[in-house]
Amino acid sequence: MLALTKNTSPNRQLAKFFIIAFAGVAALMLTLHYAGRALSGGSSDVSAVDEAANSISILLRDEPPQLDSSRATDAISGMVLGHVMEGLVRMGLDSRLEGAVAKDWEVTPTTATFWLRDNAKWNDGQPVTAADFIFAWQTALKPETASEYAFLLFAIKKAEAVNKGELPSSALGVNAPDPYTLVIELERPVPFFDKMLVFPTFYPIREDFYAATNGRFGADADQLLYNGPFQISRWVHGSSMTFERNPHFWNQDEIHLDTIHVPYITSDGTASLNFFKDGRIASTGLQAENLTEAMRMGWQIRQHRDGTVFFLEFNHRPERLTDNLNLRRAVQRVLDMEEMVYKVTKLPGYEPGVSLFPGWLMGVSAPLREEHPPQKVVPDLTAAKGYLAAAMQELNLTEPPELVLLAGDNPISNIQSEWVQQSLKAKLGIDVKIDKQIFKQRLAKMTSGDFDLVLAGWGPDYNDPLTFGDLFASWNKNNRGRYNSAALDALIEIAQTRLEPAVRMRAFGDIQQHLIENAVLLPMYERGVTYVVDPRIRQLKRRVIGPDPDVSRAYIDSSGE
């Protein structure tokens, strides 16, 4: 998941890559639903738009695994939280950073000060104060919270020591001279600090409500307190959700819908397409085989590159065979990602992966990958067999190993995991056991290290290359394979601490080279989304940074023009 001060050049650069600003993790497709009727999956009373009820619906591919913002890590939870919660800042409809709970702010090399709106309120009518942000951040940093995104807070003075249990949470370098002023001491100069604050870990949490949930904060609709444009009024786990307009949201004028329904939680793309054809949903993704029919039907076809990089990640824990560099290089040199994208997956808008850093990220004055081109890895079966032979000798194996590939249980993951399995068996004799898991369980297994290989992906948390560059730092809990390299950590520290843009970008180039040379991961593809959408829906925003899709400012225009 990911995020990137005002008027940033990367945002302008994004326009070159997107046909429509409909960004996001293609985990979500839009539908529309008659309000007030049953939300049963596949219900025959679902329709595209209910103008009378001023409601729309969105379809989620998966159940949100975690709505406690201090612990949420995935894009689906982030999308839901982005509609019901609001941080100090947010991404506007023009993809520029703008004030949210904060009406103004100032970032210097040593401090960041935010002045809060006195009309920002929780959905129970109480004001949102600086204390709510301080409590949320202290909670995320507590070791017992086990937040995988606690490291985002390390820019704050003493945050890392608090997270390690060396200092109490009260030692965190934040204070509130009054209820509507928040002063943050920075551990080091961080020129992009305000850009990071769009991420859910920085959302506020009110201490009294949190304590009253007795450890169930975020587990159900009534176990959350909301300060965003909407609130969750109904949540049937694994089945449906309903968002109602938050009457206490500070800016009612920019919220147009009264209700957002989620009548379906399913990853069945075929069902979604059929719903669209039947006039029961407002949007669906398109596969390659659907494009001809979509054009014949005269549907409004849109495309978007959502900023996410997908990759094959290795488990680098010492007890795993994939900790062996030669074995990883054997796999690296035998898998042809162009074949996987163009001949196997065959999805419109996808591009073969060449780096952990996606093409839209900006360097000093041009895209980062133009300023620092990645080393091209050319498939070479002879070289791959040589690496495998060396690995078997080092691992004392008499025959190629058997590996476990952790993957999602959805059509795209099925195709890709079977291609990996077949390629490694046919070319290297490596047996691959595919471990298919539903979304939530796959995340749990990734965290526990229960895999040799895993089909994974990463989208930006904020608009700076560091959001990708520190992913494989030894201290980053999102480094699920636990790669540990002092050399890589040193490069990441340069990217974190140096202020000179050229020095930072050169460090990112070196990080890119290190990841390729050491086969830390294998970039597979950058995802594109091709979809059709009901023309009556306006101001529906797809994003690279922030909740995707963002329907918080959407409205219905029956003219369809």
Plain-language structure description:
The chain has 561 residues and is of the alpha+beta class. It folds into two domains: 9-264 and 534-556, Dipeptide-binding Protein, Domain 1 (Dipeptide-binding Protein, domain 1, Alpha-Beta Complex), CATH 3.90.76.10; 308-528, Dipeptide-binding Protein, domain 3, CATH 3.10.105.10. 28% of the residues lie in helices and 20% in strands. It contains 17 helices and 20 strands. The protein has helices at residues 9-14, 75-84, 130-141, 159-163, 193-196, 207-212, 269-277, 291-296, 325-334, 337-345, 368-371, 381-394, 411-428, 439-448, 466-469, 486-497, 501-517, and strands at residues 28-31, 55-60, 89-91, 97-99, 102-107, 111-116, 174-178, 181-185, 230-236, 240-245, 259-262, 283-285, 301-314, 351-352, 402-408, 431-437, 453-458, 521-533, 537-538, 555-556. The strands form five sheets. Strands 12, 13, 14, 15, 16, 17 and 18 form a seven-stranded mixed β-sheet that branches. The chain has a five-stranded mixed β-sheet with strand order 1-2-11-10-9, covered by helices on one side. The protein has a four-stranded antiparallel β-sheet with strand order 5-6-8-7, covered by helices on one side. A hairpin with a 3-residue loop joins β5 and β6 (111-116). α9 (325-334) packs antiparallel against α12 and α16 (486-497) runs antiparallel to α17.
Task: Outline the fold blueprint.
Layout: H1 9-14, E1 28-31, E2 55-60, H2 75-84, E3 89-91, E4 97-99, E5 102-107, E6 111-116, H3 130-141, H4 159-163, E7 174-178, E8 181-185, H5 193-196, H6 207-212, E9 230-236, E10 240-245, E11 259-262, H7 269-277, E12 283-285, H8 291-296, E13 301-314, H9 325-334, H10 337-345, E14 351-352, H11 368-371, H12 381-394, E15 402-408, H13 411-428, E16 431-437, H14 439-448, E17 453-458, H15 466-469, H16 486-497, H17 501-517, E18 521-533, E19 537-538, E20 555-556
Parallel strand pairs: 2-11, 15-16, 15-17
Antiparallel strand pairs: 1-2, 3-4, 5-6, 6-8, 7-8, 9-10, 10-11, 12-18, 13-17, 13-18, 14-18, 19-20
Helix pairs in contact: 9-12, 16-17
